Amino acid sequence: MNLTVDIGNTAVKAALWDGGGVVRPVEGEDWGAESFDGAIVVSTRGEVPRIEEELRRRARFFVRFDHTTPVPIKNLYGTPETLGLDRLAAAVGAHTLWPDRTMLVVDFGTAITYDIVTAAGEYLGGDISPGATTRFRALHEFTEALPFCRLPEGAGEFPARETKTAIGNGVTTGIVAEVEHYIAAAGTKFPGAGVIFTGGDADYFVGRVKFPIFAVSDLVLRGLNAILEHNANL
Hints:
globular, Nucleotidyltransferase, domain 5, 6 helices, alpha/beta, 234 residues
């Protein structure tokens, strides 16, 4: 039994794995077992000594995922020390699920990231743009009068006739256009490439983008499990 823990900017996500299959997602730090065969943690918040110490105590094999950790794909990023580890883990997860296909991974979080992992198992890198909440917050914090908004439940008509609808329309339409641009670009450069959506806002945009898409909510955790198994077998 393996435990994978992803400590993000806004939440702690974890899952228990039996071999390659997820047993169950775990809420926060309620890991539900006294011991694990293996455990891996990645953090975008910097050092997490309390959690790391707890996992070292409870796991027979422990990995703190950082830029020196071996991974089961080839990392061709030019500055690997600056690469977000969640991006790399998601790429590993994508290659684990579709090892014979080049994939565009779109992760909807605090930032939206667009990454390519090839059928040959090469991570090529990608692009980063502000996520939906980041865009809403920027409009609110860097203007005098605009309110803080969230993703609207439905599509608003253009032109909008009140401010919250105008903001919701603008942010949503901008993200959809951006995502469709990257999907088209990936398809042109890598014919036959698949597309995976993951991250907190993935479900919202799946039905709004006019391309065939795979949605995998646990992609980063799945990649972490593959990285853990890879290191355990070295």
